[in-house]
Amino acid sequence: MSLRLVCFDVWDTLFILDAFYGDVAAELAGKFGGSPMEWRKRLLEAYQKVRTIRRRGGFRDSTIVAMALKAVSGFLGLAPEAIAEAISRAVEHSDSRKYVVDGAYDVLRLVRDFDLRTAIIGNVVFWPGSHNRVLLERAGLAKFFDRQFYADEVGVSKPKPSIFKQVLSAFNVEPGEALHVGDSLFEDFAGAVLAGMNAVLIDESVKEEVKLSSWNAYIIPSLKKLENILKTEIK
């Protein structure tokens, strides 16, 4: 594998989504009452519903945040503005270091040690990519990335090959010279493979690294295992 570029998804790849929802839930409970645990449960349920709609093409990429926020407001029984405000407060007040997936700092340092270019390729749901930028910066992860590409900013979502191709073009690299790492079989793994890139899927259900040689792809149980791939496969 001759790599020049390594790309990463954000949520449940570098950051733990459930932890962030815990902070958003606390904001909602503080303003509207109820327990943070119940709000957290409802947020996660709403997220899964919205994600399903997105996968089925129910949102336009150009207006995905507003459309998804409207859908979530219907599921939660709150105004879109109230949900957006709670998310913004969580972003502003949270210590995003607690969201960081185990091993993320070490893996990203190793990628830099190999002198590889790096990028974020992130989908969005009911908050904009700009919030992710703030959280990554505050967690000390942003410094490891040359560029960040979010669906609401580039106008296209994963798994469409065009978002991956935009990134490849920005770095002037061929698909075979790039690796994408993410936790979604559909959005990250399939999207990268369709774009001709190398791919790594993080799947906690597997117990050890699986190599799919026909696609030049891997399945690993945790982000920490990416170190093994980088150390053994980069030539």
Task: Give structural notes.
The structure is a single chain. The protein has 235 residues and is of the alpha/beta class. It folds into two domains: 5-16 and 100-234, HAD superfamily/HAD-like (Rossmann fold); 17-95, DNA polymerase, domain 1, CATH 1.10.150. Helices cover 50% and strands 13% of the residues. It is built from ten helices and seven strands. Strand 6 (210-212) and strand 7 form a beta hairpin.
CATH topology of the largest domain: Rossmann fold
How far apart the termini lie comes to: 6 Å
Q: Give the CATH superfamily of the largest domain.
A: HAD superfamily/HAD-like
CATH architecture of the largest domain: 3-Layer(aba) Sandwich
Radius of gyration: 18 Å
Number of helices: 10
Proportion of β residues?
5-15%
Which ranges are low-confidence, i.e. pLDDT below 50, for 5 or more consecutive residues? none
Number of domains: 2
The largest beta-sheet arranges its strands as 3-2-1-4-5-7-6
Characterize the largest beta sheet: strand count, sense, and whether it forms a barrel.
7 strands, mixed
Averaging pLDDT over every residue, what do you get?
95
- Estimate the helix proportion, in percent: 40-55%
Q: Which class best fits the helix and strand makeup?
A: alpha/beta
